[in-house]
Design a protein that fits this description.
Length: about 160
Amino acid sequence: MRIILVLSMFLLVACNMEVDVQINGEKNEELAQSWMDHLLISGDLDAASELMHEDFTFMWMGIVYPGSEIHGKESFFDNYWPVVGELLPNGIVLTTIDAISDNDGVALIQVGDAEGINGEYDNKYVWIFKMKDGLIHSVREYNSDLLVATRLFKNELKPID
C-alpha cells in the first residue's frame, strides 16, 4: 500500500512540474515575443528595456563578420541597435514560425523580410533567450552570417585557392 501511495505522490508531483514548465514556458515565449515587438514593431525601446534584466547580455553569433561581441544592456542600445537601423533603414519584418520554451528560456525561430542598404535581405533567425527573475537575462542571435556579410556589408565571397 505504501508503494502505491509513494507512486501516486510521485505522479502527482511530476504532473504538477510538467504544468509549471508549460506555464513558465508560455510566459517566457510571451516575454521574448513582446521584447521583439517593442524593438521592431512599436520602436518602444524604453518598453523593451524594462523587459531586460539589469545583467542583460546580447551577442550576435556570426563568425564571418568580425564585429561580434558581447553587449550589456547599455551597449546593446548605444552600439548594436543603431547599426541594425543603419543596415535596415526601412526596418525588418520578422515572422515567428516556431518556438521552443521551458522554465529557463525560449528559442524563437523566425524568418525575416527586409530591404537592406544593398538590396533584398531575407534571412532566417533563431533567437535564444535565457530568463532570470522574470526578465530577459541574455539573448543570442543566430542567422546566416554569409547573408549579413554579402547583402548588408557588400563583402564578396571568393574561392579559396
